[in-house]
Amino acid sequence: MANEKKIDCVILGLLSHEALTGYEIKKRMDTALSYFWGASYGSIYPALSDLVARGLATKKEYSENNRKKLIYTITDDGRDYLKNWLALPVEKDELRYETLLKLFFGNEKGPAQAMTHIEAFEKKIENRLPYLLYAENILTEHLEADPTHKYYLLTVRFGIKTYRTYLEWCGEAKALLKKNQGNAD
Amino acid sequence: MANEKKIDCVILGLLSHEALTGYEIKKRMDTALSYFWGASYGSIYPALSDLVARGLATKKEYSENNRKKLIYTITDDGRDYLKNWLALPVEKDELRYETLLKLFFGNEKGPAQAMTHIEAFEKKIENRLPYLLYAENILTEHLEADPTHKYYLLTVRFGIKTYRTYLEWCGEAKALLKKNQGNAD
DNA sequence: CTTACCATGTAAGGCGTTACATGATTCA
DNA sequence: TGAATCATGTAACGCCTTACATGGTAAG
């Protein structure tokens, strides 16, 4: 019962909402979950087969516009498995911020280099923020009609808040680097 | 020249400041780098041997209080390797927030369960924040005397800002869950 | 007609954690 | 004298990414 693989849990979690194809699961990860989780096809498809083999999901062939899709549905056992995992305490939250890593060792290359990394980071965040704001709007509007999305909304708000903090930090970091560069305004 | 392993880069980055033992490197990761990077002994020690084999670091036996230590020093080649990596654009920043994952699927188990995860997260962050604040004080004080720590300070401030945002979010998330639970104060 | 996207997978290999193994020293 | 911390490492195994392979459809 121990050692739940995270990839199984994410997939079951997504399937607990609605039946999905492997491709759609990947899409969800790249959008709705992108700021706190990720996975590649190379882990998604094998995991799906495995879930079916263990009776935690079922697979159905489905045809849309003459194009066949494989849709996965969570089973009762799958739902139990998910619930069991959800009740366990969180093992670890981890980040691997290469940007911060490069910045940490910034004195090897100087402020100009550090500035470049900060600006690239800033742009990446600025590009992603609108999606989250859009999602927040939709979710807030439908909150009373569909309260099951309350949790989704909470994670979106986490994303928005942290992204805005990142942007704030970028501004401050750039200011500090400029100030210390020796040329006042 | 491509495919720089991150573990090599972190270690070289730490060694670029001062010569260290494997044990000390691990310590740095668990404190100064903890909120944006991590590694285990099982990756640190083999990486150190490898760096020596490639001429990017040297190893010296050293005795302190009759206890032998293996101290690693960065070489000129190591410094070049590090600088080269620092100049490359950031490949990816990634987070794996199990807390957010469990929260995302929270409607399977309800608000009480979600609350538990949020509170555990909150406590973890509250416990770690003081270390960062302490580090910020020290670094700010010594900033003019030792400007090489400017970059370290930037990452510490990143940690503080994001941690504070996390705590803010915890408060809001708990409020939303309570409100929707149906019992107004 | 070709680029982008939809859609599903496999294989190799890398990377890194966990668990194990060992032993010294310090502090209560 | 026992626990905690210092200190260094190895081996097995697991997990996941990258790259590869294939082919349909939609839009310009």
List the helices and strands and how they pair.
Two copies of one chain form a homodimer.
Chain A: H1 6-17, E1 20-21, H2 22-30, H3 41-53, E2 57-64, E3 67-74, H4 76-87, E4 93-97, H5 98-104, H6 111-141, H7 150-180
Antiparallel strand pairs in A: 1-3, 2-3
Helix pairs in contact in A: 1-4, 2-3, 6-7
The first copy, chain A, binds a DNA duplex (28 and 28 nucleotides) through residues 5-7, 21-23, 39-43, 45-46, 49, 65-70.
Description:
The structure is a homodimer of 185-residue chains. Chain A is of the alpha+beta class and 185 residues long. The first copy, chain A, has two domains: 6-87, Arc Repressor Mutant, subunit A; 98-179, no CATH class. Helices cover 62% and strands 12% of the residues of chain A. The first copy, chain A, contains seven helices and four strands; from the N terminus they run αβααββαβααα. The first copy, chain A, has helices spanning 6-17, 22-30, 41-53, 76-87, 98-104, 111-141, 150-180, and strands spanning 20-21, 57-64, 67-74, 93-97. In chain A, strands 1-3-2 form a three-stranded antiparallel sheet. In chain A, strand 2 (57-64) and strand 3 form a beta hairpin. In chain A, helix 1 (6-17) crosses helix 4. Chain A is elongated. In chain A, 31% of the residues are buried. The mean pLDDT of chain A is 92. Chains A and B meet through helix 1, helix 4, strand 4, helix 5 and helix 6 of A and helix 1, helix 4, strand 4, helix 5 and helix 6 of B. Strand 4 (93-97) of chain A pairs antiparallel with strand 4 (93-97) of chain B.
